[in-house]
Design a protein that fits this description.
globular, alpha/beta, 2 domains, four-stranded mixed beta sheet
């Protein structure tokens, strides 16, 4: 609580990792996006990172130098580039834009992998629990909100996991999500890993289309308690008709 007060008073990040911005865009079937639409979103995110401010985390240099971090960091937080946008259609008109800030700690503890399901969904979720329980004690920023995407490819599973974060609701939990949360809370990891019964606040699970195969691709991420807080903007169809 003291850290939160200092961060608010001095306008500095509460956490030393303010995250990488990921953007989900949903477009109504009748909407035609104007030129420069995605560029404008990226510019808006850059301005937001500067004003917050975000933590300066962008690495300088060419491809090898960036891997090795040998040229140091940019001092400006707005140099942090947004990864490729995820775009989907939706039945209703208008455009929804969701921005998620993905932190490094949960990213280190996340995994995307194949699971042989043996025609039993419990086999898949037992694998998820095994991974989470092995990593959650090293997360350092519990209580967490595990986010899981299950798809046909590694890309699809990761995309479904992002959508689980964007659309998840802690007040509306499926039976599978409740079971996952209950199992995490029985681990006795607790807040900040110091022990206790609240290791997870809830869980977000998104299961997409599946292929005829003995394998399911699972993306599992132990999100920190603030990561699924997204900035969402809805632009109504009336706005687009006026352009």
């Amino acid at each position: 609580m003291e850290n939160a007060k200092i961060a608010e008073a001095n306008k500095v990040p509460l956490c030393d990792d303010t995250g990488i911005p990921h953007v989900l865009v949903e477009v109504g079937n009748t909407i035609q996006l104007p030129g420069g639409f995605f560029h404008d979103i990226a510019e808006g995110i850059a301005q937001g990172l500067k004003e917050l401010p975000g933590r300066p985390m962008a690495v300088k240099g060419n491809s090898i130098e960036r891997i090795e971090q040998s040229k140091g960091l940019y001092k400006s937080p707005e140099k942090l580039l947004t990864p490729s946008f995820t775009v989907d259609t939706m039945e209703k008109d208008g455009v929804n834009i969701h921005v998620l800030m993905m932190g490094g700690g949960p990213e280190i503890r996340a995994n995307t992998y194949k699971v042989f399901h043996k025609r039993d969904h419990r086999k898949v979720f037992n694998e998820v629990l095994t991974w989470l329980r092995s990593e959650i004690t090293m997360l350092g920023c519990t209580p967490c909100i595990p986010s899981v995407g299950i798809g046909r490819t590694h890309f699809e599973a990761s995309s479904l996991m992002l959508k689980a974060m964007a659309y998840g609701n802690l007040n509306i939990q499926s039976e599978i999500e409740k079971t996952l949360t209950k199992s995490m809370n029985s681990s006795n990891t607790g807040a900040l890993g110091i022990g206790g019964s609240v290791t997870a606040l809830g869980s977000f699970i998104n299961i997409g289309p599946q292929r005829a195969s003995g394998v399911r691709i699972v993306c599992t991420r132990p999100c920190c308690c603030v990561e699924p807080r997204r900035s969402s903007v809805n632009v109504s169809s009336e706005f687009w008709s006026d352009l």
